[in-house]
Structure prediction request, 854 residues.
Amino acid sequence: MSSVTVPSVAEKEHAHTGSFLKTYVFSLDHKIIGLQFLFSTLLWFIVGGLLALGIRWQLAYPWRPMPILGNLLAANEGGQIAPENYTMLVTMHATVMIFFVIIPVLAGAFGNFLIPLMIGADDMAVPILNMLSYWFMWPAFFFIGASFFVEGGAAQGGWTSYPPLSVIEAAAPGSLTGQTLWLMGVTFVGISSMMGSINYMTTIIQMRAPGMTMFRLPMTIWGMFITAILQAFALPVLTSAGFMQLSDRMLGTGFFLAEGASANNSALATGGGQPLLWQHLFWFYSHPAVYIMILPAMGMVSDIISTFARKPLFGYKPMVYSISGIAGLGFIVWGHHMFVSGMNPMLGMTFMVSTMMIALPSAIKTFNWLGTLWGGKIQYTTPMLFAISFVSMFIIGGLSGIFMAATPVDIFIHDTYYIVAHFHYVLFCGTAMAVFGGIYFWFPKMFGRMMNDSWGKVHFALTFVLMNCVFYPMHILGMQGFPRRLADPYHYETFRNLLGLNQFISWCAFIMVGGQIIFVINFFGSMFFGPRAGRNPWHANGLEWQAPSPPGHGNFDFQPIIYRGPYEYGSPEVEEDYYPQTQPPKPGVEAQPAPAH
Amino acid sequence: MRRFWRFLFLLVPIGGVATFVAAPYFNIWLPRDVSEHGRTIDSLFMFILYLTGAVFIVTEMALFWFSWKYDARTNDEPVKFSHGSHALELVWTILPAVTLLFIAIYQMEAWAAAKMDVPKIPITAEVTGRQFNWDFRYPGPDNELYTEDDIIRTDGKFYLPVNEEILLNITSADVLHSFFLPNLRMKQDVVPGMLQQMWFKAKKTGGFDIVCAELCGWGHYKMKGRVYFLPRPEYEAKLVEMANEQKTMRVQVPETE
Prediction:
């Protein structure tokens, strides 16, 4: 995988000494660090998926011992999922998926691997910071992993960790040591993200190749750039809020506890604080985090769609402005998570208007993707299928958000399965599809070999159909008022008739998760036995495709000079239907002026 | 078979609409509404459902049509070498902006009625959430809370008069809970140390679910109650009955109150 046939000047200058440990473990090379992130997150993806299966089993067959997986998830109860165990499952499924999978796979894996390659740099601006950003994930892995085995089990306060449930130790078994470990884990993820984001911003601003202006950057890089800015400004708030909660738990302060707070006959805690303060601080980070979890995916999808539609991206500048708009508005919409929290209803109205407005840039992006498909010559490769499905699913996830944004409707559907359907459509059917698409698309660059396209399509069809069977019916569960995080809702008269539908959803989920084995086999099989890819297997324009596959240390075996944007497919200036960014214009041909959009 | 992939994308609008059309036949829909204001919320829900449904069908069909028509294997036309269009961008910026602003302004009144305009009537009762129970305190004959004639119930059964505006004080004794009445389209998180108010008017008699909608610990799923709406005379008789019951049997009042 590291065999580089073309020796380069850069490589000779700072080649590794060759020891395995130095090359693959303590590496300063952005590509290796990106792959380290990729493998770690895929591993946690499996953990998060198995936790979800526990939730689905309990909702389909309440209190029945879970076969096979039950021995892992609920060994002490003989496979039966106890109610406190259920709240642990929902908490840790979300925590693992958000903090260990989606955020690090986008920024950590794809960001690290792609940023220097796509902008024509030989590495990140500060390689050592980059290495540390990966190694600081390990304390987080350790704390969260260990929390499953401490007394009381892992955190049970929901991934939102609302006090007082998460602060008062007597309130839940998971609020013993589990919650402390949870807070420390999330803090370390924050430190890692912060180091990454500073590095990304510096690299993108400072290290672009000659000719690579900001408006010649691929959308993936724009997504990563805006994400890095969001992280740098929002993360400090979460980190300090985390420390405030830690000190409430361990030092006896009362930032988030009301006067005379107590639960389950515990001793009175120090009071004088306000539980809603945590929600404000938490969502001030976690709403922008929603965009941290989707903007890079949007960028990757834009690149894939333009490549396989063999057509320039429709409305490049409006796309850039929309993600900037999403990022800007993203800082003033956090209150829409709190419409029924007890926050002043007048404030709710303000947040409602800003939330309605943030739907606008998302709509603009969707129309531009459709515009890119229009009039193209679409090649149905596996990455393209995943990218188109991202657009199709993002339409559903975007439109269902309008229901929640409408405050009177939110009174009813808040904290029901309607919201569960909504964010799974954005995060699983959206971002996870973009991640799969991205892996199929950049796999040749990562490992120098192609993934199997037929099995990729089987994987796509299976995932696409089943995920819709899983998440779409959740909308109508939510319409009935079916609340989230309830271990057994069927003893309520209102929800009694929903058992059948939940069993259908659960079975689709079991098959879908099982079907991912196709992807795992394809991934590892292709890594060693796939056909050799060559530099540019997709005939793509992007700069990364001009480097060797896989690129050696220092990335490029020539000095890249950029003549145009990355989306000049089907240009009349050349005979081929693609026009790489580094290909000099033919003498005599006037270089086309930069497009007005 | 060659066009198989595109049919998957056609399945999205078909299946999406079919699910919502079929759901009522499986008796899954918005639960029965017994409140006066619920109709506003339901019609707003349906309005947004039809509006987003129309956008959903149009965009998903466009996606399918483009993926069908512009397949590289069947499309002989050269690629449209276009970087975008100012006019189109303007159209699809302004149209959604106006629509979204309209929805935003259109709903403000309903929100104000549900959460801001507190009716000027005496408190009917106080609701306290605690792990894992809903407690109810009626003011008793003197109509004032926290006096000697208060009636306190911890059995999760909540009696209220039908066809009357009701004003509740709601709060929590320990962690966050959410007082959710699906059939009345009402939900409000309760926060320890914060006294909040909820008001509604039921139009039908009968018993309905009270659900906790904010994660509150291991027993969250069983933090259940029932609200019973009774005609005025029956309601008053019930209050007297409960007051007598309280006189004759010892009801343990938690010390924190």
Observations:
- Chain A touches chain B through 122 residues (CB under 8 Å).
- The two ends of chain A are 40 Å apart (CA to CA).
